[in-house]
Amino acid sequence: MSKTFGKRIFSPLAILIGAWIVIELVTRFIGEWLWFQEVGYLSVFLIRLRTQIGLWALVFFPSVAFLFGNLAIAQRLKYSKYELTQTTRRDSYPSPKSFGLRWLLTLILLLCVLVGLILGYYLYELLSIWQPQFRVPPVFQLQSWLPIVHFFQQIGQSLPFPIPYWQVIVIVGLSLALGLGGLSTAILAGPYFWLRLIALVISLSIALITAYRWDTVLKYFYPTSFNEVDPLFERDISFYVFSLPVWELLRFWILGLSLYGLVAVTLTYLLAGNTLSQGKFPGFSLAQIRHLDILGSFVCGAVALHYWLGRYGLLYSTRGATYGASFTDVTVDYPVYTALSLGSAAISLILIWQAIFSTNRRSPWRPLRLGGSFISGAVLYVTVIAIATYTVPTIVQRLVVEPNELARETPYIQRSIAYTRQAFDLTRIEVETFNPQPTLTAADLEENDLTIRNIRLWDTRPLLETNRQLQQIRTYYSFPYADIDRYTLLSTVPGETTERRQTIIAARELDYNAIPPQAQTWVNQHLVYTHGYGFTLSPVNTVAPGGLPDYFIQNIGVDGEDGALEIANEQIRASVPIGQPRIYYGEITNNYIMTGTRVQELDYPSGNENVYTTYDGRGGIGIGAFWRRLLFAQYLKDWQMLLTQDFTPQTRLLFRRNIRHRVQAIAPFLRYDRDPYLVAADGGNTTLTGENTYLYWIIDAYTTSDRYPYSDPVADDFNYIRNSVKVVIDAYNGSVDFYIADPTDPIIHTISAIFPGFLKPLEAMPAALRSHIRYPIDLFSTQAEHLLAYHMIDAQVFYNREDLWRIPTEIYGTQPQPVQPYFLITRIPTEETEEFILLIPFNPVLRPNLIGWLAARSDGEQYGRLLLYEFPKQLLVFGPEQVEARINQDPVISQQISLWNRQGSRVIQGNLLVIPIEESLLYVEPLYLEAEENSLPTFVRVIVAYENRIVMAETLQQALDGIFQPETTPATPIIRPVEEN
Q1: For a designed S-S bond to 323, which of 462, 618, 643, 712 qualifies (C-beta 3.0 to 4.6 A apart)?
Q2: What is the rounded CA–CA span in Å between residue 774 and residue 778?
Q3: Backbone angles phi, psi at 660, to 5 degrees
């Protein structure tokens, strides 16, 4: 009766769970189908989906069939008696004798621990898919020279997917506890059930991990040549970027599968019958030994593949003086790995031969009597591998290489330098000598008037704080970020029709979380509060009365023809398009909304009243039909969608409105910059009513790889990067366009072949938007980080670290921080006109003076060119730290700062900018004053330093006059009470 009751309970429960899974999968599939159809990338989704399902099925079903099949065979053979042919003499081939309970339990526990290790490793890899931060190393670090730590480092690097050594220790520890505890108990209690269950979990894990790496597999079938070969194996770089990861994935699959199959079958045989209760194991039968030989052959074949691919993994070694294959790797590990691979392959063939043609078996290891040379050979094999791969290379490294490291490693250091520079695109940096001269005059400043007019007095952080106080208008608006850009405006300067102005633009987005809790209803969240409105645009170099930003575009709810935004003057109105300034897609728009309902959307506040609107953009999925409402109610787990009476046949659902999530969902195979920026320009898009949209987000996207030979990743998880794609998102319609920014990148050509029509040429981007693309900050920072060491191209200089650089520090607020790259409009010494550049200075290690600066160009045909200006080493050029020290040591300046830092206020020292003008360097640092409560930073002073002169003044012009016109303005610091502002 209990069984009948159990069936009555669990059968319907299983049916319900199965139905729920099917409904979940179907609704997710249809929902994703409709969303990708809306954004115009359905083909990308279908290619990805087909590949993932195909890979999952291709891996899961054969894995389950292999493991379950071998366990089923083991079940049939586990009670077989040891067979002897009639012609075999017992004195030559004695039958295996039993051995005691102690040996049996020891072997079973060791195999259970091995099962725990295999299971733990694959579960760890599966967990890393959903929790990538799990791979991030902890704060503490162990000494890498400790033998045990070095041993675990070697294990972590030799795994199919390298794991940090501290996680190897954790996995081994947990697996030991799991194997000796729960797994051993479970397997002893019910070996067949638990071994099959573990086989199912391992197969599912491998299949899911393989499906997750679908883009890696697709790239294997569409390789693009790099036209560059590695110096050790002389294979094109495309083999390492496109093919090697797939071979490693294959190794990951078959090695774990075959090893677990061997262990599980061995446990089945050891636990057959009453071996534990009788306290002895009678030995393996000939059929069992043949079965184990076949599985052992598979394991040795997988090991052969492991070491064959391990030879290529030497190109990513960290053993030597620099990254990549070192002397020990090439002269010891390379031949050792080759020998181990060939030897393992030979053993695999021998085991197959024995399994097929052997009719008897003799055990040379009489104390164990476990059925022939299988166990003894396995132990000997593992011992040889341990000595060959760990002990011998360590001895050679310590006794041969380290005493003569420079001589031994020189050719390998040269390789690492060359390939790292290629992988991070440092080879195209144009190096010039910049010899600063103390000859800058007021006349030079007049000739570089555009540079002077664009010197940045406003940093993004104080401007954002000011925006949050003055421009949010309502609590539900937010300014999450601000971005530096340049606009060509109608000029107010006599004799000029247009001028380029460096500006700060900040989007006014809607932050639903800031709405009072009492108003956070379902209707408000999804039907009323649907979008942000407008933006602020302000020049970086001018200040309004009271020390506030001098906005070109500001406020909201103003009557006029420009979308209720306030425009400073007619020149701005004619230069910057404003129409349709609603932001339905942004950086913090994380909730989904429904538009075209019976409830009007809040547009913007105007005085004491609100203005309402109805969305007429092209974004969204129609959900007027009931089946679509039902579908997305299940997809979004929002059943209010079925109960509301506010929907109409025209209702549309807008979700994935966060621009980062949006592009990541479409193209997860690209890496995206952390700083999307807003552009107000005519991008050519229109609403359903034909009205132009003018707000667009631009995101830089990268193609990366961690398989470029010899390339040092430094602190990154990749060792090759290109800014291959520019992504443009319409802030109103939500449309997404991907443009090829670097057609020389082989990876982007492969992606184009995989997804035909997915990428557009950069020339197809509207000219108004193309004029706003800029060199990406993340890429620039990465290149600058690598340039600190890899500007040294001489192997001996690199080895001795004779000319190592660092990023200087500056005081921001009151705390030191590394100097961040900053944009300037300036004239490069070798050019005739000013241009928009990204710049960062460098210091020598342990010294505060400047040694050079790197600039990235962003305008027109010069886009992407990198210039490195190096200062003569014998010349002392003040660095940011020295200038900061001189500023803070000036008695008058420091006294005034101390006075401002009292009575509930504090001074913020802004970014110290190093500005090249002609053959000289000018240093500019703004000062802001803010209250300790209700912060509203105001600009109060600017400090200008040149050579041995420092001036602090209320305006930049006064400060420049104080330095370059000392006959009319004293060179001493100009101090005036802040109340005068």
Answers
A1: 712
A2: 12
A3: -65, -45
What is the per-residue DSSP string for 712-739? --TTSS-SEEEEEEEEEEETTT--EEEE
User: Alpha-carbon distance 19 to 581, whole Å?
Assistant: 46
Residue 156's contacts (CB-CB under 8 Å, 6 or more residues apart) are 162, 163, 164, 165, 167, 168
Nearest to 760 by CA among 735, 731, 733: 735
Reduced DSSP (H G I as helix, E B as strand, rest coil) percent helix, strand, coil of the chain, to 5: 45, 20, 35
Q: Specify the pLDDT at position 351.
A: 87
Instruction: Judge whether 584 and 686 are in contact, CB under 8 Å.
Output: no
Residue 79 to residues 66, 82, 277: CA-CA distances in angstroms?
21, 10, 16
Q: What is the pLDDT of residues 667-718, one digit of tens each?
A: 999 999 999 999 999 999 999 999 999 999 999 999 999 999 999 998 888 9
Q: How far is CA 22 from CA 17, 26, 29, 64, in A?
A: 9, 6, 10, 22
pTM of the model: 0.88
Taking residue 933's Cβ as centre, other Cβ atoms within 10 Å add up to 7
Return the ∠ at Cα 922 (arms to 920 and 926), rounded to 5°.
175
Quickly list DSSP for 21-51: HHHHHHHHHHHHHHHHHHHT-HHHHHHHHHH
Question: What is residue 545's three-state secondary structure?
Answer: coil
What would the mean pLDDT of 246-274 be, rounded to a whole number? 88
Q: Which two tokens stand for residue 838?
A: 């990204």
Q: Residue 558 carries which DSSP code? A: -
Instruction: Copy the structure tokens of residue 545.
Output: 């009365």
pLDDT at residue 561 above 70? no
Residue 280 clears pLDDT 90, i.e. is over it:
no
Q: Are 337 and 385 in contact (CB under 8 A)?
A: no
DSSP 169-212: HHHHHHHHHHIIIIIHHHHHH-HHHHHHHHHHHHHHHHHHHHHH
- Other C-beta atoms lying within 10 Å of the C-beta of residue 433: 9
State the Cα–Cα distance between residues 300 and 830, nearest whole angstrom.
Answer: 63
Q: Are 900 and 929 in contact (CB under 8 A)?
A: yes
Look up residue 386 and give its amino acid: A
Count of beta carbons in the 10 Å neighbourhood of residue 69: 11
pLDDT one-digit tens code per residue, 38-62: 999 999 999 999 999 999 999 999 9
Joined together, the tokens standing for residue 702 give 């990268």
Least confident stretch, 79-93, 638-652, 750-764:
79-93
Cα(905)–Cα(930) distance, integer angstroms:
6
Exposed/middle/buried for residue 730 (C-beta within 10 Å: 0-12, 13-18, 19+): buried
Instruction: Give the whole-angstrom CA distance, residue 804 versus residue 851.
Output: 10
**Alpha-helical segments (H) within 213-243:** 214-221, 237-238
Rounded-to-integer distance, Cα 176 and Cα 172, Å: 6
pLDDT higher than 90, residue 192: no
Q: Find, among 341, 354, 344, the residue nearest to 292 by Cα.
A: 354
Give me the long-range contacts of 952-960 (CB less than 8 A, separation at least 24).
Answer: 952/892, 952/893, 952/896, 952/927, 954/980, 954/981, 955/543, 956/452, 956/455, 956/457, 956/541, 956/924, 960/442, 960/445, 960/452
Q: 148: which 2 tokens?
A: 């045990």
Q: Three-state SS for 695?
A: strand
Contacts of 322 (CB under 8 A, 6+ apart): 409, 412, 413, 416, 417, 712, 798, 799
Q: Judge whether 456 and 504 are in contact, CB under 8 Å.
A: no
Closest C-alpha to 722, from 696, 697, 698, 740: 740
